[in-house]
Structures are given as structure tokens and as C-alpha cells.
């Protein structure tokens, strides 16, 4: 896939991407330049991820979304013009998305993702799912990991947001490390005892490997064992919040809406009790106050989660730097951002 | 009953639509911030930036497109942000925030000020303006993958200047002139050389061999006889480098042989220097030309900038760039000067060639133009995602302030990797103001050690009060019972004093000076301690701080660029076009060292956070022991007060 081409970086690209090539190097930029990404969901988080990937300089980005622009669904959506009410969200986002970087091929697709055949997903190097149902995410994750396609999921719920990634059982990448040099007779250090030291001016690339589990496995962690219970104290509560929000989406076919606050907040508490109960953990884990802070996509939270998510996609495609395994949770009320692993190690 | 507008309580949403906020900087963080503000519901926004758009901004400053290159950042950012929310009321200023028009009254218009700056001088200034106006300030910065956001409120939290920032990197003159051991020393030398030849000559930027190097314990007269190079050098020394170069008509081969042969041979005569070091090897133009093959090898493939030329290639680049710069100088006319700019091709070529030739002479691996540019231009790598995260955090802190929850504000670090507590974003409690802060204490006071017979009034003004203590236009009076005015910010009033020494005005050991900055509404009492024993190349020392010294080398190039090479021009309190781009405070941000480029922002040196896990620390670590990445640290007990 990514290796199939070795695109040449032009002088024009080198000028535009200068500040990031200085960070992640030319090889990473080349890999990025050869990668195609599917981004499902053109809401606030989708817009942030799209912006970040287009600016970074992937080869192609496909925006897939069947929903129509509405005030509520586009509150944090800066790619949709204000005049586009009622239009398809992906198509309405296309022009501004493309303007971010003419060197990237941006496409809009207004189909329902549920209706897409398996083949559709196989043309991409990475797939990022936002605003999707749990069942759909599990299906796409399973399909893509069989074909060595990197999978990302993410959502923003008010002040909260998360990211999940599955880069496959064997994701190889490189990391830059300071070079150790053996002092030679010619070194400038004088006659002091010779030992290897770090050369501040040289670095080496170290090859590494990371392993990931499926989304299904990551979501179906068994919390009933003694060992799991012991871990509970150190587990971010955001993981359970995610289960609640996904269940709400499954049950209602939508996310909690500010206009139906009374009804939805009541329902959220009920789902919290059900979901946590079914997982075998106390519903006290998630206190009531989450309820009034998990409505709508909040722009600054989309920026934070979309920033982390976008960078993880860049890292995965460019096979550069240690990926975050396998969840990132953000709590915008606390300013806290946690990376934690769920599933078999 | 709770009523929501989007994610926000209605009361908060209403207050956003009526309050007025100021965004200082429309670069990497500024663009992201403007977007977040209008999408969150802020309606009255003023934005100021004196910079114009460059092509290298486009990988992250997403409100700009190629067609905008050369235009005002503030203006284009405003127009692009308005498309997200046409009902917003945005005012753009293409100007420096340090312009006296933006006085305390101006700052009082806002309920909140948000910095999205890239240099320490402007950050210091806005810090003081917000203290004077008593307006909450959110400070921020990014460098590569790292970032930080913090909140500053007079009387409640530390101010930007409460903790001393690591001082700018400087290198001892003799390292630059005699004994470079790292590429950066050669790069600094070649930038000095550029100024000596084509730009403004500066006595602190000498490039010729330093005969007073204490390590050489060398008496030039005694050894002159055996110095093969000394004769020629004697000729050169009496005139300035520039006058000599001019007298040769900027003959590139003569320049080459002086710089890379004669001067090096002269250095070789200072034999004590080479007892424990590998001695430099002089180069001779003719020899190199004779032995060069027509198709000379260069290493590194692909982009031209990333190739490392061979020695003869460097010679040719040197020759070619000298010729181009010479004609540029000629075109400008008599007495003209060139200003070094990393984006000016011949200037950058010249520094690349001269630095590499010197590296070669001193047995270092030569570097590509791309790498030399990073160091010479003090370029801090910058990406969209880090700026997006930081700008999101700024707005979240802003919402706390506007909800009257200042006490829940925090400082947040963004790391490259999660720490051992699994945190990628680390919120920490805000510290109370430091009682001894020379800015926000009730009666700011400092003690400065200097030599009253050697320190001029101009040096007191420029180096000490402006550069070191961040004043913009100081007035100084001596507390001698007579109120003698030493420096007036009114033009023409005290210029006559500039070249005189402090002792000429009766300033003695333990004299007290009162320095006022009217714009900043800031008064600083300076206690003078006279000393004859400052280290070489040190003009003054602030008591309680270590003198500026050359920093230890760093390791990780990811982060390293951000903190390398505090170059000289960067020290000017400029938000001039030199002081580029957005970001950072942990380490200053983008581009050329607007001073501080090495400068940490808020709390970057907080002792409290000196332990393992913050972005800040990772940078400090790099400075200190050149090895650690944030995750390499252990998770020992620390005194960071991390919030859960
Ligand atoms: Zn202070």
C-alpha cells in the first residue's frame, strides 16, 4: 500500500511543508504524500481532522457523509459555508477543504457509509470514522485490519472527546534517537577516559514495532475478574462515558441534542445505569454531572481531539514515532488528556 | 432548568456574544484560535499582528492561502474567520502590539487577552500591559509536538515574568573565534562574518582570531616571529574586516584565503589551544581548485537543499554568494548595508558555505543548506495539529474565566508522548505570584552587578533595561537626592549621555536608579553593585542569577531546533518582521529567534515543575543533559501539582 509509490517531493512542496519536514523529516513527508484517507463524518470533529490531514499533505482525502447541513450538526463545522443549510455536509465542505491545500486530492461522497460495500474501504491506506454507530465501527475495523488498513475512530460529545486506533498487529515505525558515538583518537575531547557518548548533532533512526487489538475487543473488556477490578481505579472514567454515549447513539439513532435537553439528560442517566451495570461496574463511577456537559460538538474540544487524532493518522501513515495505544480521552472541563490501552496486550 | 446553546449554558453563551476579547498574534496559534472563538460564539474580537504571510506558514496557518502571500496576517485572518461567522465583529490591526497606541486604556476595553505570540519581548510587554490594566491574560506557545497554555491574573497567579527564563544562548567569543567544536559555533561565526563584511559591523561579532583567549596563555609579540601568518594578519588587523574586504573589491579568493587559510594558520601559532584539541587544517583556494574533480560528489539525494556539498562545492558556493552579495551592496550605493535574512538566497548561501568550510577546517561533518538554515535561522518546526490543540485549550480556559471560575483555571502542558501517569495533556495548578518578581511585585526591585567605569548609559538602556528587563521606552533617574535624569524617553533630551559611563554621573557602588516605563505603567528600582570581576564577555549580572553562558549541547533534533542558537539580533525587543510566526512559549515559537526563541514561556522554568513530565521539562532536560525524552523519565515522587 503506502510503499507502492515513492512520490518525489517537489521544490514547491518543500517550501510549503518546510516547517513540518523539519519536524518529521523528508521520508515521513513522502509516505504521507503517497497515502489516501477516508474520513467518514463531516461534523465538527470531521472538519478538524480534514483540515489537519489536508494541511499535512496526504495524497488524497475522501469526505464521506450522507447527512444534511443543519445549525446543530454544523456548530463547530468551519468547512461548511453559512449559506449551505440543507445541502449535503460532505459536498458543502469540499470547496473550503480543497482551498486549504491545492496539492491534495479532496473528494466528497454523499452516500451512507452503511451502504458502502467492503471493496470501497480497500482503496484507502487509513480510514477515520467519526459520528458512526458502534456496529458500523466494529464492522469497518474488522474489515480494514484484515487488509492492513489503519483504522481510527473518534467523537466529540460536548466537553468530552475520544480517539481510538487500530494500526494492526504489527505496525512498524521508526523513531529518531540521539546517536551514540564511540570517541576516536581524533575526537576533540582530549585524553579523558573514553566512553560512548551522545552526539548532539547526529541522530539515528531506530526501527520499532507496536501491536494493536480490534475495536470489538477493546470495547468488550471484561470487568468482572478480580484483576480487572483492581485496574478500575487507574482506568479513566472516560472509557465508560464512551460506552454510554455509543449506547445512546445506538438506541436513538442520534446524539443527545440541546433542544431536547430535559428528555435526553434523563435518558443518559438511565443508559449510564444500564450500561455500567451490564459491564459489572458501579454506576457511581460516572457521576451525574457528565450529563449537562456532553451535548453537541464543542469547537475547542473538536480542535483538541481533532489535533491529536489528526497527528496520530499522520504518524501512522508516515510510520514515524510511537503511536498512542489505543485510546485517547479528553476532558475539556479539566484540561486532562489521557492515553490508555484497552484489550489484550 | 438548564438551557443549552450548543454545548454551553445559555448564560455563558449570552456573555460570549457581548464580551470583547483581544487576540495578540495571527500566526499558527492565532489562526486556530480565531476559528475556535467564532465557532464557540465569541462575537467581538480584535486581532493584532504586524507580520505578513509567507509560503512557509501555509502548512498550518489555515486561514491563509497561497494567493495571500505577502498580505497582512491580521487582515486576512479576519476576513477568513468572518466567513465562518459573518455576524461576528472582528477588528484587525496590522501593527506591533508594542506600539504606544496600544496603551493601558486600550487593554482595558477587553475582558480577556489571549497571546498567540512567538517571542519573549512581546510576551513580556503584553504581560505588563495586562497587569497594568488588570485584565486576565491567557499565554500560550508551541514548538514541534510540544505546547503549553497558562492563565495569568494579577495578584492571583504568577505573571509571565515571575520565574526567570533561561537566558538566551550565547557562546563565548573565543569559542566562536578560535576553538569551535560544534557546527553551531561555525554557523554563528559565519553569520557574524556576514555582518562584518556586508552588514552592520558589531564589535561583539568579531570573527578574526582572538589573541586574548585566556586558554592560549599566549603572547602574540613573543611568538610573532614564528607565526607565518602574522605578517599578513598584521596588515589586516589595523583596518576593519569590512574596510579590508572593500579594499580588495570583495575579491572572493582573497577573502577565502584570508578567512580559511591565513587566519587559520595564525590560530595554529596559538599552540596551547591545540594540545588537547585536534588542530584546524588551513585551506588553500588554489590547491582545492587544482585537486577538484569537475563532477564533485555531494551526499544526500533529492532536494537540492538537503544535499551536502563537497569542499570544492562549498568553495564555489562561497565564491558565487560573495559575488552576488557584492553586487547587491553596490546597487544599494555608498555606505549601504545588507541585513542577513535566512530567506534571502545569497545570504543563506553565504552562511552555508562559510560555516561548512569552517566545519571542514575544524574536522566536523559538514551540513546541508537545509540543516544550516534551521540553526542559522533559529527555525522552530511547527505543525497544524499542535497549534490546534493549544488553541482549543486556550478557549476552554477562557470559558472558565468568563464563567467566573478563575480558581479552576490551570496551566496545561502538551507532551509528545504520554507520561507514566498516561497523560498526554497535563493540567497543573497555577502558582501564586512570586513575591520577588521584578515585574508584578508591589515595588519591583533588582540588583545588577556591573562595572560603573565600563558600562555606558546606552548599554544600561539597551542591554539592561530594554533587553534584559523588557522595557520599551525607559526613563531613568538617579536616586541621588537631586533626581538627576540619566535617560529620558523623549527624543533628543539625553542622547548626549549615551556614550558616557555610569561613573561619570556619580553612580557608585550601591547607587539606586529608578527606571520608569510610562507605556507599561511600570517602575523598576535598580540597585547597582559595582564590580571589577565580571567574566569575559559578560557585561552585567543580575544578582541571584547565573551569568549567561554557553549552553550545553542538546540532542533530539525534533525539539532541538527550537532551542538552539539564541542569536544576537533576536535579543532586540522587536516584534519586527524578524520575529516571526506564532507560537510557543515553552520554547518560543516559530522561526528565527525572535529573541527568546529559546525562551520559555510561562513557567517554563518553574522549579516546581522541574521534574519529569511536562513539556517544559522535556525541553529543560534537553538543555541540561541532552538525552531525555519526556517518557524516559521515571515517575518518582515529584512536586508537580498535577490535577486529576
Ligand atoms: Zn510576576
Automatic annotation (TrEMBL), chain A:
Molecular function terms from GO: SUMO activating enzyme activity
Residue ranges of every copy of the THIF-type NAD/FAD binding fold domain listed in the record: 17-336
Transmembrane segments: none
Renumbered residue ranges of the record's region Disordered: 178-197
GO cellular component labels: cytoplasm; SUMO activating enzyme complex
Pathway: Protein modification; protein sumoylation
Pfam family, one: ThiF
SUPFAM superfamilies: Activating enzymes of the ubiquitin-like proteins
InterPro entries: ThiF/MoeB/HesA, ThiF_NAD_FAD-bd, Ubiquitin-activating_enz, UBQ/SUMO-activ_enz_E1-like
UniProt entry tagged with the keyword Ligase: yes
Statement: the UniProt record of this protein carries the keyword Nucleus: yes
GO BP, sorted A to Z: protein sumoylation
Protein localization: Nucleus
Keywords (A to Z) from UniProt: Ligase, Nucleus, Ubl conjugation pathway
Family to which this protein belongs: Belongs to the ubiquitin-activating E1 family.
Subunit record text: Heterodimer of SAE1 and UBA2/SAE2. The heterodimer corresponds to the two domains that are encoded on a single polypeptide chain in ubiquitin-activating enzyme E1. Interacts with UBE2I.
Name of the protein in its database record: SUMO-activating enzyme subunit 1
Organism, scientific name: Mola mola
UniProtKB/TrEMBL annotation, chain B:
Domain called Ubiquitin/SUMO-activating enzyme ubiquitin-like: residue spans: 448-535
Keyword Amino-acid biosynthesis (UniProt): no
A GO MF label: transferase activity
Known EC number: 2.3.2.-
Active site annotation, chain numbering: 174
Pathway: Protein modification; protein sumoylation
Ranges annotated as biased composition (Polar residues): 559-577
Domain SUMO-activating enzyme subunit 2 C-terminal intervals: 545-635
Domain named THIF-type NAD/FAD binding fold: residues: 8-419
Keywords attached to this entry: ATP-binding, Metal-binding, Nucleotide-binding, Nucleus, Transferase, Ubl conjugation, Ubl conjugation pathway, Zinc
Principal cellular location given in the protein's record: nucleus
Residues noted as binding ATP in the record, renumbered to the chain: 25-30, 49, 57-60, 73, 96-97, 118-123
Biased composition (Acidic residues): 203-220, 584-593, 631-644
Region (Disordered): 203-236, 545-644
Chain residues that bind Zn(2+): 159, 162, 437, 440
InterPro entries referenced in this protein's UniProt entry, alphabetically: ThiF/MoeB/HesA (IPR045886), ThiF_NAD_FAD-bd (IPR000594), UAE_UbL_dom (IPR028077), Ub-E1_IAD_1 (IPR042449), Ub_act_enz_dom_a_sf (IPR023318), Uba2 (IPR030661), UBA2_C (IPR032426), Ubiquitin-activating_enz (IPR035985)
Coiled coil (UniProt feature): none
Stretches with biased composition (Low complexity): 594-604
PANTHER family linked: SUMO-ACTIVATING ENZYME SUBUNIT 2, UBIQUITIN-ACTIVATING ENZYME E1
Family: Belongs to the ubiquitin-activating E1 family.
Function, in words: The heterodimer acts as an E1 ligase for SUMO1, SUMO2, SUMO3, and probably SUMO4. It mediates ATP-dependent activation of SUMO proteins followed by formation of a thioester bond between a SUMO protein and a conserved active site cysteine residue on UBA2/SAE2.
Protein name: SUMO-activating enzyme subunit 2
Amino acid at each position: 500500500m503506502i510503499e507502492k509509490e515513492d512520490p518525489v517531493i517537489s521544490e514547491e512542496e518543500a517550501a510549503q511543508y518546510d516547517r513540518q519536514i523539519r519536524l518529521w523529516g523528508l521520508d515521513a513527508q513522502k509516505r504521507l504524500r503517497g497515502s489516501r484517507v477516508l474520513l467518514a463524518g463531516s461534523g465538527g470533529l470531521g472538519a478538524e481532522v480534514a483540515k489537519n490531514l489536508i494541511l499535512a499533505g496526504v495524497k488524497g482525502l475522501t469526505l464521506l457523509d450522507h447527512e444534511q447541513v443543519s445549525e446543530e450538526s454544523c456548530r463547530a463545522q468551519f468547512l461548511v459555508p453559512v449559506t449551505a443549510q440543507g445541502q449535503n455536509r460532505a459536498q458543502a465542505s469540499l470547496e473550503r477543504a480543497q482551498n486549504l491545500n491545492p496539492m491534495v486530492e479532496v473528494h466528497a461522497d454523499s452516500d451512507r457509509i452503511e451502504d458502502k460495500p467492503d471493496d470501497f474501504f480497500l482503496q484507502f491506506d487509513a480510514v477515520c470514522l467519526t459520528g458512526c454507530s458502534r456496529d458500523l465501527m466494529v464492522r469497518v475495523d474488522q474489515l480494514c485490519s484484515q487488509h492492513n488498513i489503519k483504522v481510527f475512530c473518534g467523537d466529540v460529545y460536548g466537553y468530552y472527546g475520544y480517539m481510538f486506533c487500530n494500526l494492526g498487529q504489527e505496525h512498524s515505525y521508526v523513531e529518531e534517537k540521539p546517536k551514540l558515538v564511540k570517541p576516536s583518537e581524533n575526537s576533540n575531547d582530549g585524553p579523558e577516559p573514553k566512553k560512548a557518548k551522545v552526539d548532539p548533532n547526529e541522530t539515528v533512526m531506530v526501527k520499532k514495532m507496536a501491536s494493536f487489538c480490534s475495536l470489538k475487543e477493546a470495547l468488550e473488556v471484561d470487568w468482572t475478574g478480580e484483576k480487572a477490578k483492581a485496574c478500575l481505579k487507574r482506568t479513566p472514567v472516560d472509557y465508560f462515558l464512551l460506552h454510554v454515549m455509543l449506547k445512546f447513539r445506538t438506541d436513538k439513532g442520534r446524539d443527545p441534542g440541546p433542544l431536547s435537553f430535559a428528555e435526553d439528560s434523563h435518558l443518559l442517566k438511565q443508559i449510564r445505569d444500564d450500561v455500567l451495570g451490564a459491564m459489572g461496574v458501579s454506576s457511581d463511577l460516572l457521576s451525574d454531572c457528565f450529563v449537562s456537559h456532553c451535548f453537541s460538538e464543542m469547537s475547542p474540544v473538536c480542535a483538541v481531539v481533532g489535533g491529536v487524532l489528526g497527528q496520530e493518522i499522520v504518524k501512522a501513515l508516515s510510520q514515524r514515532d510511537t503511536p498512542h495505544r489505543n485510546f485517547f480521552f479528553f476532558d475539556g472541563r479539566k484540561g486532562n488528556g489521557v492515553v490508555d490501552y484497552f484489550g489484550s496486550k | 432548568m438548564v438551557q443549552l446553546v450548543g454545548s454551553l449554558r445559555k448564560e455563558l453563551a449570552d456573555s460570549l456574544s457581548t464580551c470583547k476579547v483581544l487576540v495578540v498574534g495571527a500566526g499558527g496559534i492565532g489562526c486556530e484560535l480565531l476559528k475556535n472563538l467564532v465557532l464557540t460564539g465569541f462575537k467581538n474580537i480584535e486581532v493584532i499582528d504586524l507580520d505578513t504571510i509567507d509560503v512557509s506558514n501555509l502548512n498550518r496557518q489555515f486561514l491563509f492561502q497561497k494567493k495571500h502571500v505577502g498580505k497582512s496576517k491580521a487582515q486576512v485572518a479576519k476576513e477568513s474567520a468572518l466567513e465562518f461567522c459573518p455576524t461576528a465583529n472582528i477588528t484587525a490591526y496590522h501593527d506591533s502590539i508594542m506600539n504606544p497606541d496600544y496603551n493601558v486604556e486600550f487593554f482595558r476595553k477587553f475582558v480577556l487577552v489571549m497571546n498567540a505570540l512567538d517571542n519573549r519581548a512581546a510576551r513580556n510587554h503584553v504581560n505588563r500591559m495586562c497587569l497594568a490594566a488588570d485584565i486576565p491574560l491567557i499565554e500560550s506557545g508551541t514548538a514541534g509536538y510540544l505546547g503549553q497554555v497558562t492563565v495569568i491574573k494579577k495578584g492571583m497567579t504568577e505573571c509571565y515574568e515571575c520565574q526567570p527564563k533561561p537566558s538566551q544562548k550565547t557562546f563565548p567569543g573565543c569559542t566562536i573565534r578560535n576553538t569551535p567544536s560544534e557546527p553551531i559555533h561555525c554557523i554563528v561565526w559565519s553569520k557574524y562574518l556576514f555582518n562584518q563584511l556586508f552588514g552592520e559591523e558589531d564589535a561583539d561579532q568579531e570573527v578574526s582570531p582572538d589573541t586574548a583567549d585566556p586558554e592560549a596563555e599566549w603572547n602574540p609579540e613573543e611568538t610573532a616571529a614564528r607565526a607565518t601568518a602574522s605578517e599578513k594578519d598584521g596588515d589586516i588587523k589595523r583596518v576593519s574586516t569590512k574596510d579590508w574586504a572593500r579594499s580588495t573589491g570583495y575579491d572572493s579568493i582573497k577573502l577565502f584565503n584570508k578567512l580559511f587559510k591565513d587566519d587559520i594558520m595564525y590560530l595554529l601559532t596559538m599552540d596551547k589551544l591545540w594540545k588537547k584539541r585536534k588542530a584546524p587544517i588551513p585551506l588553500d583556494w588554489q590547491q582545492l581548485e587544482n585537486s577538484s574533480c569537475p563532477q564533485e560528489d555531494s551526499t544526500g539525494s533529492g532536494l537540492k537543499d538537503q544535499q551536502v556539498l563537497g569542499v570544492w562545492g562549498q568553495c564555489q558556493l562561497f565564491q558565487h554568494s560573495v559575488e552576488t552579495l557584492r553586487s547587491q551592496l553596490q546597487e544599494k550605493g555608498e555606505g549601504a548595508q545588507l541585513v542577513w535574512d535566512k530567506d534571502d538566497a545569497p545570504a543563506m548561501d553565504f552562511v552555508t558555505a562559510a560555516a561548512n568550510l569552517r566545519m571542514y577546517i575544524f574536522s566536523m561533518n559538514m551540513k546541508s543548506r537545509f540543516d544550516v538554515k534551521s540553526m542559522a535561522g533559529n527555525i522552530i518546526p511547527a505543525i497544524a495539529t499542535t497549534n490546534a490543540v493549544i488553541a482549543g485549550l486556550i478557549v476552554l480556559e477562557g470559558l472558565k474565566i468568563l464563567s467566573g471560575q478563575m480558581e479552576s483555571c490551570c496551566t496545561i502542558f502538551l507532551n509528545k508522548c504520554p507520561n507514566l501517569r498516561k497523560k498526554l495533556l497535563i493540567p497543573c495548578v497555577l502558582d501564586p505570584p512570586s513575591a520577588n518578581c521584578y515585574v508584578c511585585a508591589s515595588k519591583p526591585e533588582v540588583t545588577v552587578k556591573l562595572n560603573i567605569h565600563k558600562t555606558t548609559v546606552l548599554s544600561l538602556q539597551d542591554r539592561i533595561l530594554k533587553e534584559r528587563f523588557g522595557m520599551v521606552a525607559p526613563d531613568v533617574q538617579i536616586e541621588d537626592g537631586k533626581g538627576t535624569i540619566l535617560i529620558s524617553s523623549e527624543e533628543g533630551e539625553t542622547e548626549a549621555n549615551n556614550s558616557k559611563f555610569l561613573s561619570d554621573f556619580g553612580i557608585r557602588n550601591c547607587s539606586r536608579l529608578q527606571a520608569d516605563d510610562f507605556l507599561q505603567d511600570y517602575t523598576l528600582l535598580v540597585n547597582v553593585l559595582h564590580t571589577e570581576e565580571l567574566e569575559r564577555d559578560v557585561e552585567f549580572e543580575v544578582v541571584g542569577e547565573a551569568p549567561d553562558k554557553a549552553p550545553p549541547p542538546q540532542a533530539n533534533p525534533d525539539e532541538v531546533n527550537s532551542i538552539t542558537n539564541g542569536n544576537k539580533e533576536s535579543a532586540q525587543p522587536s516584534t519586527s518582521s524578524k520575529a516571526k510566526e506564532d507560537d510557543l512559549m515553552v520554547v518560543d515559537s516559530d522561526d528565527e529567534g525572535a529573541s527568546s526563541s529559546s525562551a520559555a514561556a510561562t513557567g517554563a522554568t518553574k522549579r516546581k515543575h522541574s521534574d519529569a513530565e511536562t513539556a517544559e521539562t522535556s525541553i529543560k532536560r534537553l538543555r541540561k543533559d541532552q538525552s531525555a525524552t519526556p517518557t524516559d523519565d521515571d515517575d518518582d515522587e515529584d512536586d508537580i501539582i498535577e490535577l486529576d
